[in-house]
Amino acid sequence: MVLLKFYSCSFLLSQHVRCLHRSKFLLARGIRRPNDSVPSPPPPSPFTSMDKSSFADDDNTNQMSIQEQFARLELQRLEQQSEKPREESNSFIDEETEVLKEKEFDEEKPSKPFIDPSTTSIILFPGQGTQFIGMGQQVINYPNVKEMFNIANRILGYDLYSKCINGPIEDLNQTLYAQPAIYVTSLAAVQKLKTENQKAVENCVVTSGFSVGEITALVFAGCMTYEDGLRLIKVRAEAMQAASNEVNSGMMTVFIGRDTKLTLAIEAAREWCNKYIKIDVPCIQIANHMYAECKVLAGHKEALQFIAHNYKVFGIRRIKYLPVSGAFHTPLMSSAKLKLIKVLDKIDMQPPLIQVMSNVTGKRHTNDISTIKRLLSQQLTKSVFWEQSIHKMYQRDKHETYPNTYECGPGRQLGYLLRLNNNKAFQQYHHIDV
């Protein structure tokens, strides 16, 4: 009887061990047993099927299953490590930003006479992605604009106005051509605004630009000449184009909610790329803070692929790839940053005549020229805090009026973002078409 019990226990133990091995075997291959009660997977998102040709493993369903298993396990691990919830909106604060706290927007100043905000203006300048065929034809006949294009032709070495009017769009969409085109037409729009409403230009108290538009804003504020600004953008565009060609990378818009675990998704994507794709230093980060429910991610294509295939695991509402070939505002632009620093060292700058917002800090630039130059170079590898800049510029008491806002340049993207960040301020928005 004792011997029988011993064999019975041994048999049950071996069966238990066999089940454990079988479970591990199934998990490693992402296979489910036929009898498991599992709800059917949701239909594939139209966003996850975009640009499949750029990813090597999209058609490998077994690989997809392993990736989803990894995403869920990694999410559990990262959540267990987190002792308290992380605030996504504060993830941009770093040591360099903390150093600038003493010089932030609301620093103590001597009291000034009250000025009705409704009599003042804010001028915004757009960034890359707003270009279109025909840009410039609405402003070419305003004072100084033809001369501005002639100067651009000499500095750039090609006919910029012809490129803006005739394209082709494949050329105009390239960073090499898009950034100078947006810069010149945006400042041409200022000439149009000055002719039609001179007070709007004279009463401007704050200016801000998105990405390349920050250089436009600094030129408008008298920090550097039009020619120097164009030379800076020429080098910037060429360097960013070259950096984009060095590595397979891209950008992706993600729409999020309160329950989204975006920071954990980014960390999991880095871990996946390091362990399974064998990328030594995986790069993916928030490149643009657009508004509370929308961020732009940028980095290695494989990291973006991981997010695209597993976005629902982390509570991301939907995703959309951007038609760009580079990971702008990430460390993958480091080679472009070095080239920009060399040019910035040669440019003579003056303190801005009006307040100019910095993309890197989300606060106003100080009058210190070395700090302005440093932040301009850092902008290539750090996030654009546009959402934070908007809140800072339009922060006011409940019953205080808002200034008039003018978006000078191609497209209405910044007006759209203003409406989503501050609808009351948007009521005084105007677009100066090019």
Task: Explain what this protein looks like in three dimensions.
It is a single chain. This protein has 434 residues and is of the alpha/beta class. It has a domain of 247 residues: Malonyl-Coenzyme A Acyl Carrier Protein, domain 2, CATH 3.40.366. The chain has 17 helices and nine strands. Strands 7-2-1-8-9 form a five-stranded parallel β-sheet. Strand 4 and strand 5 form a beta hairpin. It is globular and about 60 Å long. The N terminus is likely disordered. This is [acyl-carrier-protein] S-malonyltransferase. Keywords: Fatty acid biosynthesis, Fatty acid metabolism, Lipid biosynthesis, Lipid metabolism, Mitochondrion, Transferase, Transit peptide.
